[in-house]
Design brief:
alpha+beta, Glutathione S-transferase Yfyf (Class Pi), Chain A, domain 2, five-stranded mixed beta sheet, 13 helices, binds glutathione
């Protein structure tokens, strides 16, 4: 019998989208376990922390293997499952793919998201979710002394995160880092059609979610508006038109009302398990 595949993820999460995209590209069927990381903060629960000690999504469980960190998970998915190969076989191109994945992974997207989200969603993230987080972490730390180290790390990380989004200097730096990375992408696309070379790879998959996030936040024009980045625009149209983009539910704009309602319902009930694929 084939080992089961379960993805612990939150629909709008950028890192979860990377993994869903990899699973869709590889045509892997899996069970999606909804983990609310905004209001119910299910990622802080002791059971989840034992699975993913950083208390973040996504986590992939394949049989006895627990894989955390989206950059590692997408490589695991590509190496483990049949389907189209998403990594170049040639060593230099492989190294190039790894460098682009690492650069994408270092971008401070959560700061950009929390710092830039406008309207009611922005208020919910900064004004409601952030204070809830600290209270819940402190309470769970007291109740679970065996996990004190993991909770301390999360409390410290939360402090850094809140300090960053409250500082205009830091946020300017976050934006500058993003712009500098995108300038490198623009330059690279003058040399080859895809980031690692001639074929679509995990690097393009990871970057797809970054472009989509900037679109969703309504700030893409200042990062890769037409005149600034003509190659990125053409490339993004190409990679976002792959069937996996819709299959994986990559969020590129504020979701349609029915998607928001489904998300809210899942957040209110705190549960949700869906089967994806065959
Ligand atoms: N490097 C990790 C980062 C994971 C991460 O920060 N996930 C975010 C969602 S994209 C999360 O779970 N945030 C909740 C929190 O930090 O409490 C990865 O790529 O998986």
């Amino acid at each position: 019998m084939e080992a089961s595949v379960t993805l612990y993820a939150f629909p709008p999460s950028h890192c979860s989208q990377k993994v869903r995209l990899a699973l869709a590209e590889k045509h892997v069927a899996y069970t999606n376990r909804f983990v609310d990381i905004e209001m119910r903060l299910q990622n802080f629960e002791p059971d989840y922390l034992r699975l993913n000690p950083r208390g973040v999504v996504p986590t992939l469980v394949h049989g006895d293997h627990v894989v955390t960190d989206s950059a590692k998970i997408i490589r695991y998915v590509d190496d483990t499952f049949d389907g189209p190969i998403l990594a170049p076989q040639e060593e230099t191109e492989r190294k190039c793919m790894d460098d682009w994945i690492d650069l994408q992974d270092r971008l401070r997207i959560r700061e950009l998201t929390f710092g830039s989200m406008k309207g009611a969603m922005g208020h919910a993230l900064r004004g409601v979710s952030m204070p809830l987080r600290r209270r819940k972490l402190v309470r769970l730390r007291t109740a679970n002394p065996d996990l004190a180290e993991a909770y301390d790390a999360k409390i410290e990380d939360l402090h850094q995160w809140r300090t960053s989004i409250a500082s205009s200097e830091e946020m300017t730096q976050v934006r500058e880092e993003m712009k500098a990375a995108l300038d490198r992408v623009e330059m690279r696309l003058g040399e080859s059609p895809y980031l690692a070379g001639e074929s679509y790879s995990l690097a393009d998959l990871a970057w797809t979610c970054t472009f989509a996030r900037l679109k969703m936040l309504g700030i893409s024009d200042s990062f890769f508006g037409g005149d600034r980045s003509p190659r990125i625009n053409a490339y993004y149209s190409r990679i976002r038109s792959r069937p996996s983009f819709d299959e994986a539910g990559v969020w590129e704009r504020r979701p349609a009302p029915y998607v928001r309602r489904a998300l809210l319902k899942a957040m209110l009930t705190g549960s949700g398990e869906t089967r994806v694929g065959a």
